[in-house]
Specification:
This protein is of the alpha/beta class. The chain has three domains: 110 residues; 104 residues, no CATH class; 162 residues, Leucine-rich repeat, LRR (right-handed beta-alpha superhelix). 46% of the residues lie in helices and 11% in strands. Helix 13 links the parallel strand 9 and strand 10. It is elongated and about 75 Å long. It comes from Rhizopus microsporus. This is F-box domain-containing protein. Pfam families: F-box-like.
């Protein structure tokens, strides 16, 4: 595509150029209408068109060494071609360009940002939405840029930053960031909602400022992401941001779950293995206290002889449920899923094979019928297990056989 575009420009075929512009617009529209299905295909095509356009602009603006020896006639043709490309760019609607830039790689965004003023304004938010700090000097440079009077003529990039990452690189371990600089950094990046900060970054000062300084110096964080494998967070870390936090994961040193009542904005919750849900009332408590919950991961060891209460509350927000069972799949939980979690579309059960579950087929059919007769566009049901002994393999084979019989001979068993 890049070569063909270059050939068309050189040979001066305006109809072909206009056709390529039309293709870009049509692909963007198609992408917008079918984003769920076509994202991979369009993501591969659209930035390539932008790259071709950008390459041609750079070539026409800079020229080649041999171009200095061309005739004035060729110079006029070159200017005409440059004008055509520029006109083509400026006639692409801003909303389509904006949609394209959302899915453009950073290296291409950096080049596109220099094409013209309109592209500069459109690409800046996506280029700076996530920044990585590799040395303490970068923080000082960032502050210096925003405090420089000359930078007032440019777009202040700090207001577009939504995520900050600071790892354990060579330039991050030896120098501490002052509290004053951290406060200024927070002020210029005031809309950050996600951080991934190493414990040792900047002699641990960044991590300490995030969780221990005055509440007036903080971001409105939605989530805390671990910077290295195995990094965990205390519940106190989340409590500092309880008014804005939407995701709680990687908790350590907790035994209970009632803290969820203090986080009404929660959309994702993953309870650690130290917290085990032992009855359906506990599960319902979590759902009732978190009305915005979309994804829930938990461990359970429920008594399967309990029954579902008549006054249960429907939970329409939950879409994804991951349950790690310390025993068999509890029927009471399955009953609650199929009666209360009306919009659930992704269910995963991790099972410990302790014995043959006599009602396994009934449970599987109940879950299958619930998911595959719903109005969801895409659904998923996964049953996972680990074999610790050779004898467990036979039990798993029997469960798989039962699932296949239900799928291919559904009339033989009623839930």
């Amino acid at each position: 595509m890049g070569r063909r575009f270059d050939f068309l420009i050189r040979e001066n075929h305006p109809k072909s150029i206009i056709s390529l512009k039309y293709d870009a617009v049509e692909m963007a529209k198609s992408y917008d209408l079918n984003s769920n299905k076509m994202i991979t295909e369009k993501n591969a095509k659209l930035p390539r068109i932008l790259k071709d356009m950008l390459d041609m602009l750079v070539q026409e603006q800079q020229g080649d060494a041999t171009r200095t020896h061309q005739t004035s006639h060729i110079s006029v043709v070159t200017q005409h071609k440059y004008l055509m490309i520029t006109t083509m760019i400026h006639h692409l609607p801003a909303d389509i360009l904006d949609h394209i830039f959302q899915h453009t790689e950073r290296i291409t965004l950096k080049e596109c940002r220099l094409v013209c003023v309109s592209w500069y304004l459109l690409t800046t938010p996506y280029l700076f939405r996530s920044i990585q700090i590799n040395s303490t000097s970068q923080i000082a440079e960032f502050i210096g840029f925003h405090e420089d009077p000359a930078s007032d003529q440019l777009v202040p990039s700090g207001k577009y930053v939504r995520r900050v990452t600071a790892g354990e690189g060579i330039g991050m371990a030896d120098t501490r960031v002052s509290l004053e600089n951290f406060e200024t950094f927070v002020k210029y990046c005031s809309k950050v909602t996600s951080v991934s900060i190493s414990l040792t970054a900047c002699e641990g000062s960044l991590h300490r400022y995030l969780f221990e300084v005055d509440d007036n110096i903080k971001w409105k964080l939605h989530r805390l992401d671990r910077n290295t494998e195995g990094q965990t967070f205390n519940l106190d870390h989340y409590y500092k941001y309880k008014d804005t936090i939407k995701v709680i994961r990687w908790l350590k040193d907790i035994q209970g779950f009632h803290f969820v009542a203090d986080f009404p904005l929660l959309e994702e919750l993953a309870l650690p293995s130290t917290v085990v849900i032992t009855n359906i009332q506990d599960f319902m408590f979590i759902c009732n206290k978190c009305p915005n919950l979309i994804e829930l991961d938990l461990y359970t060891n429920m008594n399967d002889h309990t029954s579902l209460m008549a006054n249960f509350v429907v939970c329409p927000s939950l879409k994804t449920l991951n349950v790690k069972c310390h025993s068999l799949i509890p029927k009471v939980l399955v009953n609650h899923i199929t009666t209360s979690l009306v919009n659930l579309s992704d269910i995963t059960f991790w099972i410990e094979i302790t014995s043959i579950q006599t009602n396994f087929g009934e449970i599987y059919k109940q879950l299958k019928d619930f998911l595959f007769t719903s109005q969801q566009k895409a659904v998923s049901l996964k049953l996972k297990t680990e074999t610790r002994h050779t004898i467990d393999n036979e039990k798993i084979y029997m469960m798989i056989d039962e699932c296949l019989n239900i799928v291919y001979h559904p009339s033989q068993l009623k839930a």
